[in-house]
Amino acid sequence: MTKLEFNTMVTKQSDSLKLYALHFTHDDEDANDLVQDTVLKAITYYEKFKEGTNLKGWLYTIMKNTFINNYRRFVKISSFVTKSDEISSANLSYSATGNNGENKFVMDDIKHAMANLSDDYYVPFTMYFEGYKYHEIADHLDIPIGTVKTRIHVARKTLKKSLKPYQLRSKSYAYVAAAI
């Protein structure tokens, strides 16, 4: 059986897979996602399917295992988030040791470092930081895209240099380096 024939057979099963997925998820969109994951895995692992075996049963097994794995992953991630009104003593101790006053000093230093940038570097950098793409910045400022990339790079380098003391301090200031 060729891969094209196999793909055709798998996609023909999508309606029955959708009904089986609804049995697990009880939600139309989640069922569509589960079917898509199942079909993708089936096509990816095409060479593991043995011709002459029950394709529908093989697909159902992939779907069931995918659902179980996704559920376990969800439960594991959910266990990290505290959902109760009571805060454990460990979390209380952690929140009590942090001081927001330090954050104000850090932000003041970042603002001061950015204020020292010339407009040629400040404007492209802040636009990029706000989520604009290179070509959007280039169009807005009416400059070549290479110039935009260079100015952002130079601004980033200048900010890192002026905020170097935070890079040398404890890991709690790692977000300063990450922001730049």
From TrEMBL:
Residues 16-73 form the RNA polymerase sigma-70 region domain. The keyword Aminoacyl-tRNA synthetase does not apply. Residues 109-159 form the RNA polymerase sigma factor 70 region 4 type domain. InterPro entries: RNA_pol_sigma-70-like (IPR039425), RNA_pol_sigma-70_dom (IPR014284), RNA_pol_sigma70_r2 (IPR007627), RNA_pol_sigma70_r4_t2 (IPR013249), RNA_pol_sigma_r2 (IPR013325), RNA_pol_sigma_r3/r4-like (IPR013324), WH-like_DNA-bd_sf (IPR036388). It comes from the Bacteria. Keywords: Sigma factor, Transcription, Transcription regulation. NCBIfam families: sigma70-ECF. Belongs to the sigma-70 factor family. ECF subfamily. PANTHER family: RNA POLYMERASE ECF-TYPE SIGMA FACTO (PTHR43133), RNA POLYMERASE SIGMA FACTOR RFAY-RELATED (PTHR43133:SF25). This is RNA polymerase sigma factor. It comes from Olivibacter ginsenosidimutans.
